[in-house]
Sequence to fold (318 residues):
Amino acid sequence: MKNSDTIFMKQAIELSQKNIESGRWWPFGCVIVKDWVVIGQWANGVTSLNDPTAHAEIQAIRDACTKLWDFQLQGCTIYTSCEPCPMCLGAIYRARPARVVYANTKTDAAAIDFDDDFIYQELKLTDYWARSIPFEHIHSQEALDVFVAWKEKDDKIEY
Amino acid sequence: MKNSDTIFMKQAIELSQKNIESGRWWPFGCVIVKDWVVIGQWANGVTSLNDPTAHAEIQAIRDACTKLWDFQLQGCTIYTSCEPCPMCLGAIYRARPARVVYANTKTDAAAIDFDDDFIYQELKLTDYWARSIPFEHIHSQEALDVFVAWKEKDDKIEY
Fold:
């Protein structure tokens, strides 16, 4: 824990506070910092933007990556007012920041009816028909051919 | 499996094909359908938009939700050229479509170096210090107070 962590976390929490004051929007805020400068910040926009992916972390990652014009957040710290949900965890691993700092826990979130546990349980199901949303497989040679064509490209951008 | 599934999956695969033909972009496409009409579609935009969250599914969900002006995809089917990664799975559970149909599997994706297994393993770690990206907790009464304030609002939009 660093002294600057408290300052940037305060900004993330203020975003969550302002979001509920602005309307009926959800109480989550996120700030992304590189070299002590805020390069991305957002509050939850699910109900204000009608976008189920617009969690504070996803929005702040998009904001920071636009500023850096890079699809990786190397050396950055993500400050989020609440422990990230599975979608945002996945996004964070895709963005590869140096570290993540959070305030409220997923238990705190469950107590106000934002319960991620259901999604964690669904992700563990290897029998896809047992999921609450059915996931059905179509075998397609065309889809596989696209993968092979991509693998054989010389100028592709690797991850 | 329905007859229309093959038609819409073909469109998703075509998006993935066009994406690699357009540049050095990644081979994934997604189409979202409601009442036999395509209401959202995208190919992977990570390297073209410099946005690590711009997987085909996330982009198509945003597109469809904008068209419907709703943060839920009730009654929709998501056709994706490849089995969704953990981030996109989380997004799909947030969007709540009726079903998901995919072509290439995560094993096919791993074979061309898009390996999700690492993220699945990280998500399972309950000791957050064992994660490759450190997740650190700051206890904050202010953050908890925002949650309580939201819970007590009468006009909030529930999930």
